[in-house]
Amino acid sequence: MNHLLQSKVLMLVVCVILLAGVGFAGPCTMAPLSTYLSPFSCDIGDKTFSNFSWSPSSSGGAPPILASAVTVNPILPPPPYGFLFTFAGFAAANQTQDELLGYTVTAHGALITDASLTMFGAGFFGDGSVSIFEDLCSNDYWSDGCAHGTIMHLSTCLSSGCNKITDHIDFSGEQFIDVRKNIELNGGTNGSGSAFLSGVQELYSQGTTPEPSSILLFGGGALALAGVLRRKLNH
Predict the structure, then answer these.
(1) Distances (CA, A) of 172 to 175, 206, 214
(2) pLDDT of residue 2
(3) 3-class DSSP assignment, residue 28
(4) If you compute the radius of gyration of the chain from its CA atoms, what whole number of angstroms results?
(5) Are strands 26-27 and 41-44 parallel, antiparallel or unpaired?
């Protein structure tokens, strides 16, 4: 009986050491955005993505883009990590589609060192336009206006006066970033304009993984505890 209990204790210690510092969410998979909405969370590598939100609106008779009509495509390891969100966005003349997308990315190992935003399958006619305005809050949340964090911005646009389909920002290593982006399609007002968009991609790079000293210390303590328990069981 003592040997059986001893084996169980040792197995528990090993499992705790292996899981120390690792997120407990499941892997991110390709699925409708409606599946990802809070309280859902998932992992890509050592990054956890959570707090997903989607608020669509439209005008002029354009249908709103529902979360169930958006496909989330995870960008899997190796880094950079992130997502490609695909959907059929279209605004004819005198129409608009406007979507607010949000989520949080948290690093459990290597810190986040940059972010890049890219639009795919975008175009316009006449005075139509496509634009994405993104706000990033590092080490705080937008729920309190990022009062204790650092605010950064990314943007893309495609129109007769703008041709910027990607943007990028570097920063010192961040533990977590709260993201919100406003996706806008405007068909213009001259009667012959339109705008379309089929994908929005966001990627995050990382630095080298810091020395996991806390895990090493915890592991050493756990092994020491296992040794004490083993000696007691043997007596």
Answers:
(1) 10, 10, 22
(2) 53
(3) coil
(4) 23
(5) parallel
User: How many other C-beta atoms are found inside a 10 Å radius of the C-beta of residue 232?
Assistant: 10
The two structure tokens encoding residue 227: 């040794």
Which pTM does this prediction carry? 0.79
The rounded distance, in Å, linking the Cα atoms of 123 and 128 is: 9
Amino acid (one-letter) located at 157? C
The answer for residues whose C-beta is within 8 angstroms of residue 147's C-beta and 6 or more apart is 140
Give the pair of three-digit tokens for residue 133.
């305005």
How many CA atoms, within 13 angstroms, populate the side-chain half-sphere of residue 69? 11
Instruction: Check if the beta carbon of residue 130 is closer than 8 Å to that of residue 157.
Output: yes
The residue with greater pLDDT, 223 or 96, is 96
Q: 3-state class of 69 per DSSP?
A: helix
List CB contacts of 106: < 8 A, sequence separation 6 or more.
Answer: 23, 47, 48, 49, 50, 175, 176
**For residue 81, what are its two tokens?**
């990590």
Q: Over pLDDT 70: what percentage of the chain?
A: 78
CB 80 within 8 A of CB 204: yes
* Residue 218, number of CB atoms within 10 A of its CB: 15
Ramachandran angles phi, psi of 14, nearest 5°: -60, -45
Residue 108 burial by Cβ neighbours in a 10 Å radius (0-12, 13-18, 19+): middle
Joined tokens for residue 58:
């439209």
Q: What are phi and psi of 228, to 5 degrees?
A: -65, -45
